[in-house]
Amino acid sequence: MPKYSKFTQQELPACKPILTPKWVVSVFFLVGIIFVPVGVVSLLAARDVVEIVDRYDDACVPANMTDNKLAYIQNPNISKDCTRTLTITEDMKQPIFVYYQLDNFYQNHRRYVKSRNDGQLRDAAKANQTSACEPEKTTADGKPIVPCGLIAWSLFNDTYSFTRGNENLTVDKKDISWKSDREHKFGKNVYPSNFQNGLLKGGGTLDPAIPLSEQEDLIVWMRTAALPTFRKLYGRIYVDLKKNDTITVRLSNNYNTYNFGGKKKLVLSTATWLGGKNDFLGFAYVIVGGLCFFLAFAFTLLYFIKPRKLGDHNYLSWNRHPAGR
Amino acid sequence: MGRTGGGRRRDRLRWSKLYTFSCFRTPATSGDAAGGPSAHGGSAVGGPGFTRVVHCNNSAVHRRKPLKYPTNYISTTKYNVLTFLPKAIFEQFRRVANLYFLLTAILSLTPVCPFSAVSMIAPLAFVVGLSMIKEGVEDWRRFMQDMKVNNRKVGVHKGDGEFEYRHWEDLAVGDVVKVEKDQFFPADLLLLSSSYEDGICYVETMNLDGETNLKVKRSLEVTLPLEEDESFKDFRGIIRCEDPNPNLYTFVGNLEYERQIYAIDPFQILLRDSKLRNTSFIYGVVIFTGHDSKVMQNSTESPSKRSTIEKKMDMIIYILFSVLVLISLISSIGFAVRIKFDLPKWWYLQPEKANKLDDPTRPALSGIFHLITALILYGYLIPISLYVSIELVKVLQAHFINQDIHMFDEDTGNTAQARTSNLNEELGQVHTILSDKTGTLTCNQMDFLKCSIAGVSYGVGSSEVEIAAAKHMASGNDDQDIQVQDVWENNEDEIQLVEGVTFSVGRTRKSSVKGFSFEDDRLMQGNWTNEPNSSTILLFFRILALCHTAIPEVNEATGALTYEAESPDEGAFLVAAREFGFEFFKRTQSSVFVRENFTASNGPTEREFKVLNLLEFNSKRKRMSVILKDEDGQILLLCKGADSIIFERLAKNGRVFEADTTKHLNDYGEAGLRTLALSYRVLDESEYSAWNAEFLRAKTSIGPDRELQLEHVSDLIERELILVGATAVEDKLQKGVPQCIDRLAQAGLKIWVLTGDKMETAINIGYACSLLRQGMRRICLSIPTGDQVAQDAKKAAKESLMLQIANGSQMVKLEKDPDAAFALVIDGKALTFALEDDMKHMFLNLAIECASVICCRVSPKQKALVTRLVKEGIGKTTLAIGDGANDVGMIQEADIGVGISGVEGMQICYFFYKNIAFGLTIFYFEAFAGFSGQSVYDDWFMLLFNVVLTSLPVISLGVFEQDVSSEICLQFPALYQQGPKNLFFDWYRILGWMANGLYSSLAIFFLNICIFYDQAIRSGGQTADMAAVGTTMFTCIIWAVNMQIALTMSHFTWIQHLFVWGSVGTWYLFIIVYGSALRSRDNYQILLEVLGPAPLYWAATLLVTAACNIPYLIHISYQRSCNPLDHHVIQEIKYLKKDVEDQTMWKRERSKARQRTKIGFTARVDAKIKQIRGKLHKKAPSLTIHTVS
């Protein structure tokens, strides 16, 4: 005799929820009740964010070279300095985040994403580990590059400095990367070596005297972006900006995006508890919530127009199609 | 043969002298050494196909070459220790999906693969390993079963006339074995001698051909002296015979013994898996061992059965493969285009140093390489764990089936045994059931219930059918619906019926005497002597006690008599006779002894009846007779047989009781009883001796027409009979069979019975289990026996059959009465023709029109053929039930497994849903990553997705889901129709789920992309990188698919909660644990440091989860409110407790839920009621049906 237990006989206590009209309507209603306010709050949060975007890749090309931007950017003898003036549209409370935004830049390309070696970044003893760093592993004479790989090699190297009138707005570049990256993934005793000494000239250079853990621009850059359009944190300005303030940006336009027609933008933005200026989440919540209200209403209507008594035996198949028996 | 009387050999009976037909023995002198073998086919011995040589009693010869034959060890396992790994792995990779994953795993070792090798190999190893473990365990069980058989013991001659017990597996060809009563024969044997003086023995071949009646086998005359252990000391002989073959009914060979050659025919061959009955022991020589034996030759490699769902599953997998190939093509074309036109501009990728995987100068080549990458990358469209999950579910289901207390048989202590778990899911989709009769439907145990003597019906006990009818009538529902539940559940003892008709019904029949349920004081305790026709009654009892071929056996301990009868009917008659005071207690070669003890005053008198002739029963004659001389010297012929046969042989003056008896016989038949008519004839001396002379002449004649002659002569004497009465025995059905058939019929299933039994038996059983009933139009298809030459006969037979089928179809078509039911009965011979290509569709069409179909005298092969015909002709799932080896073909051919209808389909749909939802997001991301083959998710997430994070809830769904409880299923058989109609797994539904998956993938990807586009995700200003986006998307997927499965469940126990919410919890746990390891790269501390503190992450999860599930919620809400399925309504009725409040509605619906059926108990009770009502109208007041418990 098999032993009786509620488990083996499948008689465990169970809750058997049934989608009664009441349940359907209240579920939709409940979702609506939650989602619409969340959406409104998100929208309000996004509204609070002030964002100034300035595209400078075209503007910084000298007028005589607009037909040949590539020659401009590739010629080291032409000065890349450029000055931009921004007008603050709304009051901006500190901290103000400085971002650079690239467009049409495939940081998520497999060839690119793969091309790094985490061990080498973390541990000075593993400096020779350059596997997976193709095609930027070693210098021509076979010395390992630290940090190796395409990501580091293509480091973004435009720089910005800001002044309001005569006041210098300091850009704080500390803490722009994740703490865990600085402390665990990029070694305190790993120093750049042979960097940008390869056959091809890439992006920015690194100070060989500063350990990787303090090269925050690199650390931010190495967090590859998910999409070809992305923003990366450049630094923070701990000064409140007033509406109609004029900010002068002195930038050196070093990074080559002209090759692939990518835009470069400088972004000044505040942030709220929810992050940056993103209306989408709020709208989505409001729409889904609204839809749920509508569905709750529609189902209520349906139950009134075409009511079906619960457990109405007339709906059993043999009662509905007596001929088909 | 000078043996001492009463010694070792029991009873000293020489049946061959008694039996007329079946014990014909070729004279021992038919072959001698000089003349060579003379028996049929004997000349072939030694030729090709007939090369086997067996040295009797000298098995040592067969243990080495050249006469080395396989041992008696049998193995039905698929694998052994050595072959397990290669074979099982091969089996696994025969599945397309697994093969695909194997290829990807191999490719993952090359740089083409977008993932790390371990993330490709680990899940595959896990999945395949699990399946292999399952295979291994199942094979181990088979092995244990084989071991049980191999380790059975049998007495084997070890030399010097001594026998010892050995395991079956140690038997070798040539061994002399001694098999005892009720043991199975360990191998195919040549019968040498038996406990009967003339070397006959009884064999039960149920496992071979399903026939229940015992077969008589007899040894060669020449080996008869080998009757005791010592005589085998010097026994030597050589058997030359055919090679192993699967033919059960032929054997060609001869025995060379003492320099003479004797032909062996199938009568001397005892086959493995048949059983020795009614004989204390036999000696035999092993001819075929192990896998050479005929029964093993018959068993074919069991085909791996694939359920329809599994086939559909494959179809869907193919569809997904096409999608996979399509998007891979798109992806690789996109890649090639980007490589050619864009890559040269992407200086940050150093296109100058391109390798061949991304070479802008050779975009086509790179595109082809990328195609492989893409095929691997999008592999998540194919649910790798689908097979293993479904398998796991089936194993668990099988486990629960085995554990089910409702399927526990207290008598045998057996639980249900799901031998293979492959087929569970089709149980819910059976359309036609093909059943073997014996042992499956009836216990094959007869109960003497009623009799009609001299036109008076005796016996107040009632059969199951009558009881049910009575109860129903008493319950008094005037409508036509029959409350079967009430019939089974009602336990009142007395039922007052309309117009003074009383049924007293009790289920407490005295079961003191097995096989005897007769209740009537008029006949018991000798009271019959006071009945008007007591002399006829006396005769009736004598016929019961004398006209048989049974042997009494005294139980040494109790002194009680048991009878070993050829058929259970005979046993029941003898028990009945004993209870009436006519105890048959002894049989000698020439006499039958009966102890008559019916009057209290006289005390027992022992009477001896000399048996002059015995014309035994066979299916052609349908009667048996004995010719006896009683103590007064009067010669009597006692004859019992089928009523139709007896009635046509009655004398003019023997028909006094014919009318009444016929009426009683009809009543009995209607009550589901098996009937026989009894008659006698008094012969005078001269008449007998004249006949006997002729009979002896016929008996000693040699030649093919001997049997015909004998039949003819027998026919001469079995005439001018005087009818005495009729008996009615109830063939006890297996417990629950009528209910079972009833419910199956109500659930709309078709039932075919395929039996090896003869037509009468089959029809009787059909009656007993209500597949047939009086008033059903019976269409019998059979071939009239003719003596034409083979060619002609075949043609004629075919034509006649064609005509019969056409007539039958016509009859069905012309029938106007909607209540009319047809039954098709066809015998094996007719079936051979009916199954031929040009006729089978006609036959099938007719069969489908009939409410029940019974095929009799069916060979195992025909069983398989019929099954195939039904399966292919109707195109629905068939289920075969059987218990013997003879049913194997049928069972293998039928497509049953089981299919737990809805849930299984749902599971598979869900698998496709979740994998599409997941796999397509990878594809979308490609479009944003230059089709480079980069995945937005971490390798480890993807690895865990199929195996850990989403599989357990599906398994819990498959194992534990109950949409309605099992009691309700039984009450509403029509719910079963949801299965065969495939309500839960049709293409509409599959496409719906796929669309749902597509929608979910779009929602998951694009909502997340928009939310995490370029803005800061935290108040600290950080933006999202690929790891953050990937992890958020993955979180959304986990939530969405687990919510989805929660929505599909209607039955939550803690197990479901644990699995569903546990899966979600596991994901968070995993990401924390994984995030604390440095190897997680960009996912390092992703939840705790990056995403956890970001409200945006949680807001996105909530939004996406809701967005993914709203459409399905709308769908089920709408469906339930406007288009509810039956089980929805019933759930609601139960939920609202309406079944308690409104019992009439509940009852009415229960009865309506039954398919209108023409077979089964209910239909029969219905018919009986109509009949009783009709009678009541005619002669209401006088009718008293009295059934006392």
From TrEMBL, chain A:
**Main localization of the protein?**
membrane
The UniProt record lists the keyword Lipid metabolism: no
User: Subcellular localization, per the record?
Assistant: Membrane
What are the annotated GO cellular component locations?
endoplasmic reticulum; Golgi apparatus; plasma membrane
Question: What is one Pfam family matched by this protein?
Answer: CDC50
Keywords (alphabetical) are:
Membrane, Transmembrane, Transmembrane helix
Could you tell me which residues belong to the region Disordered? 118-138
Transmembrane parts of this sequence: 23-46, 283-305
Q: Which InterPro entries match?
A: CDC50/LEM3_fam
Q: Which domain of life is it from?
A: Eukaryota
Q: Which family does it belong to?
A: Belongs to the CDC50/LEM3 family.
Protein name, please? ALA-interacting subunit
Automatic annotation (TrEMBL), chain B:
User: Which reactions is this enzyme annotated as catalysing?
Assistant: ATP + H2O + phospholipidSide 1 = ADP + phosphate + phospholipidSide 2
What's the EC number here? 7.6.2.1
What topology in the membrane does the UniProt record assign?
Multi-pass membrane protein
Q: Which residues form the P-type ATPase C-terminal domain?
A: 908-1124
PROSITE patterns in alphabetical order: ATPASE_E1_E2
GO MF terms held by the record: ATP binding; ATPase-coupled intramembrane lipid transporter activity; magnesium ion binding
Q: Which CDD domains match?
A: P-type_ATPase_APLT_Dnf-like (cd02073)
Q: Which cofactor does it need?
A: Mg(2+)
* Database matches in InterPro entries: ATPase_P-typ_cyto_dom_N, ATPase_P-typ_P_site, ATPase_P-typ_TM_dom_sf, ATPase_P-typ_transduc_dom_A_sf, HAD-like_sf, HAD_sf, P-type_ATPase_IV, P-type_ATPase_N
Q: Which residues form the active site?
A: D436 (4-aspartylphosphate intermediate)
Its keywords, alphabetically, are: ATP-binding, Magnesium, Membrane, Metal-binding, Nucleotide-binding, Translocase, Transmembrane, Transmembrane helix
Write out the residues that bind Mg(2+). Answer: D436, T438, D883, D887
Instruction: State its location(s).
Output: Membrane
| Family annotation (Gene3D superfamilies) | Calcium-transporting ATPase, cytoplasmic domain N, Calcium-transporting ATPase, cytoplasmic transduction domain A, HAD superfamily/HAD-like
The transmembrane segments are 96-112, 315-337, 368-390, 916-934, 940-960, 990-1014, 1026-1046, 1058-1076, 1096-1114
Name the residues that bind ATP.
Answer: D436, K437, T438, E570, F617, K640, R674, T755, G756, D757, R857, K863, N886, D887
Q: Which GO terms describe its biological process?
A: phospholipid translocation
Q: Which GO terms describe its cellular component?
A: plasma membrane
Q: Which residues form the P-type ATPase N-terminal domain?
A: 54-121
> NCBIfam families given for it?
ATPase-Plipid
Family to which the UniProt record says this protein belongs: Belongs to the cation transport ATPase (P-type) (TC 3.A.3) family. Type IV subfamily.
Q: What is this protein called?
A: Phospholipid-transporting ATPase
This protein's species is Leersia perrieri
